[in-house]
């Protein structure tokens, strides 16, 4: 909402400065977004009067002027044909930067005659393209008067942001009222007067759908003389960015901005019969004032005559019946349209207008008739003519709302501050509320222009915003305990910890988009219609991500494109299995690409990092699981990782048959090609929500007593020849199970599948640690355990002990 | 000089000259070996008169001791020298670079780091951390927050919608973290003190807007919490987050459907190069929105607005992070560019704590 300072002062009697006014607006909720002071641009220019004009001694087309600049008489060489004694114009002294010619004026010598400044043309001031002569002011202003002041360019334009609850501030008078309440002045008396008019209005009004348009006032003014509106009105509209059309149309725009009261004017000679406010019918359409054709339907409120749809109620009138310079008889509409329907209609047609903006927020319903009188007065003033009596249909939906307010108590309750009933009453009255004391508090009647006020809390809000939140003293929130108690849930702690663990493994955390293109979503198990956005920002962001891996692959690809070839990225965040809240899940995922190991990336004199493989990411998974409290000795590693992993070089980590903890592995080369990621890449996805909940923590943090044997552990190595497809994990597990009491650990320390082995065979070597419990083991006992290990391994894997 | 003394002098001189272990051993054998020159002296002991034997024996033993010591010292000296020579051949180029390991490579994203900082501050003030889904229904994202279907505020939110469902309703991507207020109040009995950090979405994309960004919501509900408390909490939070002794705030009345009164808060700042200094300067910058929870919101979750009240606020985490750490462009946060992440990211062990300080 834009207005100028002088416009505001039409309604507000004040001594406050522009800055004070703007500060008050901002603090009380009408945030000033911009102040544009055109005077600033012309600050250097003053009225200069030509005292003498003599021909230049050495140039036919130049004159030598003596100019009174207010602060002295200076000599100016001037080439303008209209320069003459007695002319008053815009004088720019030496030092002025003249925008129209992009030049800072210096003392100059022109054909041997000194010149101190310039008498300017409109083009030089960027006011117009006029450059045939210098500005010739018709003014009584004394030399030295600021030029901007003389031509009325000194009216600052203020733009404020309007929150949806404040339709009353969509008129300058409403804004003035807020400032009055804030103590910045007094509201000038409203000049509004009822105009009776002569004779019944020949144009009859009928409301067919009162739910869409409950009230419609109108009247005919005959014999008007339309034409360009006067300068002051044009200037005002131009200053807020509106284009003057003709006096009748300009009048409606003016009142719309002055009072927040939209109106419409019809060329009465183009109307056929009576005027109706009704629901549209499918098949109907009309050409609006913007030149576009709009189709209407049953859900829209149209204004029609006996023959056709004329316009959309509360949004835009039609081209056919609009007022032109030729209009001599005008029908004025002042109605009230349902806000919700107006908003819906405008939205469906994608049609915005100043009228819609006001009606959808709620125009003061009590302004239907007064608005018509205001318009009548202005038409009579600007265009003459004779007004008929008012024709009124329907009833404005007045709320007549009265609220009992326990003022001081409610104010104290919500703000903690103390304010007496008197002061509260004064603030409310300043805002136009009716206030009556009622022993216990006050009875407040709500003005019709405040549709946002419903109850006590709304009134307190009004008081608080005028009183000023800055005046409320901060008060410490009560501490719940001396030392703060921990607040994180186990899930939140796991998320935080995952980030630290993975970054501690040299990975860099990324935050990638929650949405991705359909093709990618489908590659990673998503892309269903349920998770498609109806209005994505682009097709690249059309579907909710089914997991974190595609975003990380895209990130890896982009980094490789920037020549960052060997690195590791991870993300911990949400993905979407469906649209229900429980379908959203948290995972920690990582990707390593190029030559990357935990210890470093790329080439190095001490040994290059190997191209990433599944074991690097398996280690990431296991390390993270371990740090998240999972006993990695109990997990199972099986195949069956999803499609986007290499089928032979990937796995799933499970806890029991049902709980999937993680996927890991090298990325499927086919998928990588589809995702356009070159080079080695391996990744993992760990499902934090699937981790087992820790057992309910005992009250005590005491650890179980440590039991350590004094007896030294004994280590024995075994090498097995097994079939190439035997899983090393099975060998280890078999060995561990050979004697659960004595065998404490089994470490696989060698794998050999070179060409010295028999076809289809490989060698696995394990180190078995025996921990004696009660007494030192004899060689015989050790041998016996060894035999059990060999037997167990060969039974489960078919392996043979190597000599 | 006696014969013994002369022998000692000669042998000591020989030890002094020798410079390898083998020659030294040879000297030892020649002097102290079974057939050595000093051992030979003892053979003449029996031929001496008895009164001289003792002193002669003592003299010879003295020489033996002196020679043994000299031999031992020389052996040590030679071993030291040999070691020094060997070590000299083992010199490495100490300027060769080493890999400094994963702790130096890893980074935490600024958003995660700031969330940790924010959690730390609010945990101290007794706030728990609440969470809610990104995909929300109309009730939680709008209706319960006092934003009716045709309210202009709903149009101003640039909402992402999912397709219409069988019952005609449409799910949305939450446009703010405020639905977590509703979910928390539905699930919990007051008193409530929570913050709810998370992703939010608006159908908007330009230099200063991304379709996804992060907010943290705050909510306090009990029987007495008022705007004075709200001001205090925000002031303490901003001071702690920006790590300044004072932060000047300006509260501007505003409108949010779910709070009443509603305010936007500006903080005083100045810009010095790419650094934004909070707490000083002569400019105001909008930083957050807040207000007292609207009675309609309390009613929507079955609370009695006559008995319960409280405040709510919402802050952009990405924006806080930019102000504190100086990233120039929001869009970079989600580009996963390694150069950016390494520059603006945080070290593994930069864990924010109140004891150790929040910022890193």
Account of the 3D structure:
The complex is a heterodimer of chains A (803) and B (360). Chain A is an alpha+beta fold. In chain A, strands 29-32-33-39-38-37-36 form a seven-stranded mixed sheet, with helices on both faces. In chain A, strands 6-5-4-7-12 form a five-stranded antiparallel sheet. In chain A, strands 16, 17, 23, 24 and 25 form a five-stranded antiparallel sheet that branches. The termini of chain A are far apart. The mean pLDDT of chain A is 93. With 360 residues, chain B is of the alpha+beta class. In chain B, 41% of the residues lie in helices and 20% in strands. Chain B has 13 helices and ten strands. Chain B has helices at residues 3-17, 21-32, 37-43, 50-89, 102-105, 110-124, 138-141, 152-155, 179-187, 227-242, 295-300, 317-325, 338-344, and strands at 128-129, 135-136, 172-173, 192-201, 212-222, 249-256, 259-272, 275-278, 283-293, 309-316. In chain B, the strands form two sheets. In chain B, strands 1, 4, 5, 6, 7, 8, 9 and 10 form an eight-stranded mixed sheet that branches. Chain B has a two-stranded antiparallel sheet with strand order 2-3. The interface between A and B is large, with 101 and 89 residues.
Please provide a brief summary of the model:
The complex is a heterodimer of chains A (about 800) and B (about 350). With about 800 residues, chain A is of the alpha+beta class.
List the helices and strands and how they pair.
The complex is a heterodimer of chains A (803) and B (360).
Chain A: E1 2-4, H1 5-11, E2 12-13, H2 18-28, E3 32-36, H3 38-41, E4 46-56, E5 59-68, E6 73-78, E7 88-92, E8 97-98, E9 103-104, E10 108-110, E11 113-115, E12 118-119, H4 147-150, E13 157-160, H5 172-181, E14 186-187, E15 205-207, E16 215-222, H6 231-239, H7 247-259, E17 264-267, E18 275-279, E19 285-287, E20 293-295, E21 301-304, E22 309-312, E23 330-336, H8 339-349, H9 354-359, H10 368-383, E24 386-387, E25 391-394, E26 402-405, H11 407-415, H12 421-430, E27 434-437, E28 442-445, H13 456-467, H14 490-504, E29 508-509, E30 515-516, H15 518-523, E31 543-544, H16 549-561, E32 567-576, E33 584-593, E34 596-597, E35 600-601, H17 614-627, E36 636-638, E37 645-655, E38 659-667, H18 669-675, E39 681-687, E40 714-723, H19 728-738, E41 743-752, E42 761-770, H20 779-797, E43 800-801
Parallel strand pairs in A: 15-18, 29-32
Antiparallel strand pairs in A: 1-13, 2-14, 3-13, 4-5, 4-7, 5-6, 7-12, 8-9, 10-11, 16-23, 16-24, 16-25, 17-23, 18-21, 19-20, 21-22, 26-28, 27-28, 30-31, 32-33, 33-39, 34-35, 36-37, 37-38, 38-39, 40-42, 40-43, 41-42
Helix pairs in contact in A: 1-5, 5-12, 6-7, 7-10, 11-13, 14-17, 19-20
Chain B: H1 3-17, H2 21-32, H3 37-43, H4 50-89, H5 102-105, H6 110-124, E1 128-129, E2 135-136, H7 138-141, H8 152-155, E3 172-173, H9 179-187, E4 192-201, E5 212-222, H10 227-242, E6 249-256, E7 259-272, E8 275-278, E9 283-293, H11 295-300, E10 309-316, H12 317-325, H13 338-344
Parallel strand pairs in B: 1-4
Antiparallel strand pairs in B: 2-3, 4-5, 5-10, 6-7, 7-8, 7-9, 9-10
């Amino acid at each position: 909402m834009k207005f100028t300072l002088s416009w505001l002062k039409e309604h507000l009697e004040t001594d406050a400065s522009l800055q004070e006014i703007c500060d008050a607006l901002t603090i009380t909720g009408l945030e000033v977004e911009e102040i544009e002071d055109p005077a600033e641009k012309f600050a250097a220019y003053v009225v200069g009067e030509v005292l003498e004009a003599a021909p230049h001694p050495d140039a036919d087309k130049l004159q030598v002027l003596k100019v009174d600049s207010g602060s002295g008489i200076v000599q100016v060489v001037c080439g303008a044909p209209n320069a003459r004694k007695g002319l008053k114009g815009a004088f720019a002294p030496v030092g002025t930067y003249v925008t129209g010619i992009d030049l800072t004026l210096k003392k100059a010598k022109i054909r041997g005659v000194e010149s101190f400044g310039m008498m300017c043309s409109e083009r030089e001031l960027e006011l117009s393209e006029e450059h045939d002569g210098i500005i010739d002011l018709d003014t009584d202003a004394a030399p030295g008067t600021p030029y901007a002041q003389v031509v009325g360019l000194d009216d600052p334009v203020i733009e404020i942001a309007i929150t949806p609850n404040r339709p009353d501030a969509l008129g300058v008078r409403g804004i003035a009222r807020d400032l009055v309440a804030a103590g910045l002045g007094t509201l000038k008396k409203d000049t509004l007067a009822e105009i009776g008019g002569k004779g019944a209005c020949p144009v009859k009004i009928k409301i067919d759908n009162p739910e869409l348009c409950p009230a419609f006032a109108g009247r005919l003014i005959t014999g008007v003389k339309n034409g360009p509106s006067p300068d002051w009105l044009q200037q005002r509209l131009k200053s807020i960015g509106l284009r003057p059309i003709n006096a009748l149309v300009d009048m409606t725009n003016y009142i719309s901005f002055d009072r927040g009261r939209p109106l419409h004017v019809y060329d009465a000679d183009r109307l056929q019969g009576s005027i109706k406010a009704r629901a549209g019918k499918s098949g109907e359409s009309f050409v609006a004032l913007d030149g576009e054709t709009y189709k209407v339907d049953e859900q829209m409120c149209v204004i029609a005559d006996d023959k056709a749809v004329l316009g959309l109620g509360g949004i835009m009138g039609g081209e056919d019946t609009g007022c032109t310079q030729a209009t001599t008889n005008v029908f004025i509409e002042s109605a009230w349209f349902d806000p919700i329907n107006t908003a819906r209609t405008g939205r469906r047609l994608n049609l915005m207008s100043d009228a819609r903006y006001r009606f959808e927020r709620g125009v003061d319903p009590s302004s239907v008739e007064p608005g018509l009188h205001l318009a009548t007065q202005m038409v009579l003033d600007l265009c003459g003519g004779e007004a008929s009596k008012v024709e009124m249909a329907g009833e404005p939906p007045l709320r007549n709302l009265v609220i009992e307010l326990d003022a001081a108590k409610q104010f104290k309750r919500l703000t903690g501050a103390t304010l007496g009933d008197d002061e509260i009453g004064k603030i409310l009255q300043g805002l136009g509320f009716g206030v009556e004391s009622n022993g216990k508090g006050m009875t407040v009647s709500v003005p019709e222009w405040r549709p946002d006020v419903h109850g006590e809390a709304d009134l307190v809000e009004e008081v608080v915003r005028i009183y000023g939140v800055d005046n409320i003293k901060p008060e410490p929130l009560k501490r719940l305990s001396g030392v703060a108690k921990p607040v994180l849930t186990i899930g939140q702690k796991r998320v935080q910890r995952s980030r630290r663990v993975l970054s501690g493994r040299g990975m860099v955390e990324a935050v990638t988009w929650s949405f991705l293109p359909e093709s990618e979503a489908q590659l990673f198990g998503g892309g269903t219609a349920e998770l498609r956005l109806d209005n994505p920002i682009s097709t690249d962001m059309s579907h909710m991500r089914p997991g974190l891996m595609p975003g990380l692959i895209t990130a890896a690809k982009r980094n490789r494109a920037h020549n960052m070839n060997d690195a590791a990225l991870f993300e911990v965040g949400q993905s979407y299995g469906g649209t229900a809240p429980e379908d959203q899940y948290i995972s920690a995922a990582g990707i390593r690409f190029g030559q990357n190991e935990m210890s470093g990336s790329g080439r190095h004199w001490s040994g290059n990092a190997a191209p990433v493989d599944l074991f690097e990411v398996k280690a990431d998974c296991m390390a993270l699981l371990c740090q998240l409290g999972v006993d990695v000795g109990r997990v199972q590693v099986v195949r069956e990782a999803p499609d986007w992993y290499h089928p032979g070089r990937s796995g799933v980590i499970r806890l029991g048959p049902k709980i999937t903890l993680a996927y890991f592995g090298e990325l499927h080369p086919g998928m990588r090609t589809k995702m356009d990621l070159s080079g080695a890449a391996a990744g993992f996805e760990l499902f934090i929500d699937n981790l087992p909940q820790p057992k309910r923590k005992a009250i005590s943090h005491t650890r179980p007593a440590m039991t350590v044997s004094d007896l030294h552990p004994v280590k024995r190595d075994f090498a097995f020849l097994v079939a190439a497809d035997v899983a090393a994990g099975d060998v280890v597990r078999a060995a561990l199970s050979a004697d659960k009491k004595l065998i404490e650990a089994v470490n696989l320390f060698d794998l050999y599948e070179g060409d010295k082995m028999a076809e289809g065979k490989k060698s696995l070597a394990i180190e078995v640690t025996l921990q004696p419990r009660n007494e030192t083991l004899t060689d015989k006992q050790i041998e016996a355990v060894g035999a059990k290990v060999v037997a167990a391994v060969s039974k489960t894997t078919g392996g043979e002990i190597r000599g | 000089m006696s014969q013994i003394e002369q022998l000692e002098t000669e042998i000591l001189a020989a030890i002094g000259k020798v410079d390898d272990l083998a020659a030294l051993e040879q000297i030892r054998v020649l002097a102290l070996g079974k057939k050595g020159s000093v051992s030979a002296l003892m053979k003449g002991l029996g031929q001496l008169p008895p009164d001289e034997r003792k002193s002669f024996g003592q003299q010879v033993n003295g020489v033996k001791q002196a020679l043994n010591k000299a031999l031992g010292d020389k052996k040590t000296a030679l071993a030291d020298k040999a070691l020094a020579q060997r070590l000299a051949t083992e010199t490495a180029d100490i300027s060769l670079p080493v890999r400094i390991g994963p702790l130096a490579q890893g980074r935490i994203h600024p958003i995660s780091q700031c969330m940790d900082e924010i959690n730390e501050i609010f945990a101290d003030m007794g706030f728990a951390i609440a969470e809610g889904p990104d995909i929300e229904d109309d009730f939680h994202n709008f209706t319960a927050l006092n934003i009716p279907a045709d309210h202009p505020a709903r149009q101003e939110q640039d909402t992402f919608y999912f397709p219409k469902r069988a019952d005609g309703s449409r799910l949305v991507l939450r446009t703010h973290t405020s639905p977590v207020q509703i979910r928390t109040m539905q699930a919990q009995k007051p008193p409530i003190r929570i913050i709810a950090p998370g992703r939010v979405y608006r159908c908007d994309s330009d230099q200063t807007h991304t379709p996804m960004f992060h907010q943290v919501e705050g909510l306090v509900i009990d029987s007495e919490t008022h705007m004075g408390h709200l001001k205090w909490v925000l002031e303490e939070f901003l001071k702690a987050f920006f790590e300044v002794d004072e932060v000047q705030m300006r509260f501007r009345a505003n409108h949010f459907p779910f709070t009443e009164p509603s305010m936007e808060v500006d903080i005083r700042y100045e810009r010095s190069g790419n650094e934004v200094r909070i707490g000083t300067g002569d400019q105001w910058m909008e930083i957050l929105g807040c207000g007292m929870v609207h009675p309609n919101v309390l009613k929507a979750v079955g609370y009695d607005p006559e008995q319960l009240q409280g405040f709510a606020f919402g802050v952009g985490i990405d924006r806080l992070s930019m102000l504190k750490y100086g990233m120039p462009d929001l869009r970079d946060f989600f580009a996963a560019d390694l150069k950016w992440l390494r520059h603006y990211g945080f070290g593994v062990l930069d864990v924010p704590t109140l004891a150790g300080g929040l910022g890193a």
